Amino acid sequence: MSAPPPRRLEPSEAGAPLAVLLPFRPPPPAAFAWPRLRLVHLVGIAGLVLVVGGAAHAQASGARLSALEVIWRWLPLLMWGFGFNILMSVLSMALGTAAGLGLGLLQIGENRLLRRVAWAATQFFRNSPWLVLLFFAMFMIPFQFTVFGHTMPLPDWVKAVIGFSLPVMANMSEIVRGAVASLPSGQWEAAESLAFSRRQTMWRIILPQCVKRMLPPWMNLYSLITMATVQASIVGVSEMLTLTSQVHAAEGGRPDLLAPLYGFAMLCFFLYCYPIERFTLYLERRFQLNQ
Amino acid sequence: MKTLLIAAGLALALGAVPAQADVLDSVKKKGVLVVGVKADYKPFGFRDPSGAIVGIEPDLAADVAKRLGVKLELIPVVSSNRIEFLQQGKIDLMIATMSDKPERRKVTLAIDPPYYSDSVNILLSKKAKVAGWDDLKGKVLCGTSGAWYNKEVSAKYGAEVKAFDGSEKPLFALKGGECIGYLYDQTFVQGKLLDTEWNTEFAMPLPGIMEAPWILAVAPGEDAFAKFMTDTTLDWMKTGFILAEEKKWGITPTDYAKRMHDKHKGS
User: Fold this and answer.
1) CA nearest neighbour of A268 among A123, A129, A137, A86
2) Residues in domain Solute-binding protein family 3/N-terminal (chain B) (predicted)?
3) A176 pLDDT exceeds 90?
4) What CA–CA distance (Å, rounded) separates A145 from A150?
5) Interface of chain B against chain A, CB under 8 Å?
6) Confidence of residue A50 (pLDDT cuts 50, 70, 90)
7) For B163-190, what is each residue's pLDDT tens digit?
8) Looking at beta carbons, which residues of chain B come within 8 Å of A255?
9) What domains lie within chain B, and their CATH numbers?
10) Do B42 and A77 touch (CB under 8 A)?
11) Cβ–Cβ below 8 Å for B48 and A250
């Protein structure tokens, strides 16, 4: 059995050990890249242009404003409404994340009773329709409350934020629990053998490692809650969808404006949520390789 | 109610702060009147491009605020939350296209006389030779299925009513020439006629029939405010303010508004 003659080494490889003997280094993660335009994107964009522009073209005759002109005229108001959606999504995410972290930690805590209660709360809010939770928040919370003789108004949108933060809290609780459970038990054992207390283990060893595991699902949740904020229109909060229907009414309820106006709302949410989704995907890929 | 009054009287007598202060007083103290109006009902209450709510009802609300000497705050309401807002005290007064129904009178304090009235009317093609409701015999009208007046109109005036779902389909059929007119709520027809798409070929030449009055409402128990609003409404009728508002926003003055003006202008 004669071995083939050894390949002549390239100058750069001279003296280097065989590749298999090198320590394993994961390939560097691909840098975040904007998706390249593919056919599917073109189709989507063309569709939206058709919705917005096509209707405009067909109806531009006579004294009536075309759909694009209508959208342009109402743009400040619609954008104000959209800003409201973003505000509601950010606040409910902040509130829900803080509460969810607490609930999630209770779920994996040592106190049996608290664990049960936290589990029950998580399951309850996670498995209730968001709209039902929103209705509860709208009708159970008073529109103003009095603290030390000062009457503080509680506007509708604040109540909606509370309503949206409930499902965020429950989902966040599960994200925390899942992330902690997904860490290899060796981490706990090693920490214990190094005489870390449970609290120290949790805060110094487990949770820091969980952060990057939790980030992608957390951002996913954010995308979802952003898109869910339009449900606030059902309970009368003046956000983008409410304003869109009011704009439609103010324009005389022309049926040909329905698609362009709602298409515009869709486009705004798409343009906001799609980059978040891409970034989440990137983070997921990146963290997968490093662990 | 009586026990409530007695309790309130006792509370006052004892020098305690009354739990339910008179809305009229609290409005004056706050300096703001909060009125619930529609924001999706052109021309009664709708948005302008700056986001402000404008229309006939916001104008009425502004007039009430002016009479009270306070600032006005408009809150957009929809049919499903307007009564709740009033009961909660979130709005002091409701001017939101609410038709008069017995069950609504139970949960709010309705102001009499009704400030406005919707009725049943026809968005009629200008080519149709119809001068009165009696000319409709044997003619074909489009309608919305489920509207309670379809049957009555066909029984009383002998018109054939072709019913469609919703309000877009009958309008489409009307454009397609399937009927000479669309039988529907007068306020809706008035709203359509603001649009050049409709007002070149169609009109509303007939007087409305089967009136359905709209009521202003305040929270139950606010008798002083209700009295004030009754006086205000009567004054609107006397001065022809509502008629002027209809003209200002470009709709055909309703029979009800004209009649009320005629009735009260001498007083």
Assistant:
1) A86
2) 32-253
3) yes
4) 8
5) 39-42, 46-51, 76-78, 80-81, 84, 88-90, 168, 191-192, 194-197
6) low
7) 887 777 788 888 888 888 888 888 888 8
8) 168
9) 2-115+215-264 (3.40.190.10), 118-211 (3.40.190.10)
10) no
11) yes
Q: What is the mean pLDDT of chain A?
A: 83
pLDDT at A54: 53
pLDDT at position B137 is 81
ipTM metric: 0.72
* B266–chain A nearest CA distance, Å: 37
Token couple for A155: 């506007």
Q: How confident is the model at residue B13 (pLDDT cuts 50, 70, 90)?
A: very low
Q: Which residues in chain B are contacts of A245 at CB distance < 8 A?
A: 40
Radius of gyration (Cα) for chain B, nearest Å? 21
Average pLDDT of the residues in B45-55: 90
Test mutation, A134, A156, A244, A246, chain B, max B CBs within 10 A: A246
Task: Give the minimum alpha-carbon distance from B180 to chain A in angstroms, rounded to a whole number.
Answer: 20
Nearest to A156 by CA among A171, A186, A134, A175: A134
State both tokens at B24.
Answer: 């009229």
Mutate which of B29, B38, B40 to disrupt the A interface (most A C-beta within 10 Å)?
B40
> What domains are defined for chain A?
82-141+150-239 (1.10.3720.10)
Cα distances (Å, whole numbers) of residue B221 to A208, B37, B208, B218: 60, 21, 34, 8
Residues of chain B by 3-state class (helix, strand, coil), percent to 5: 40, 25, 35
| CA–CA gap between residue B143 and residue A138 (Å, rounded) | 37
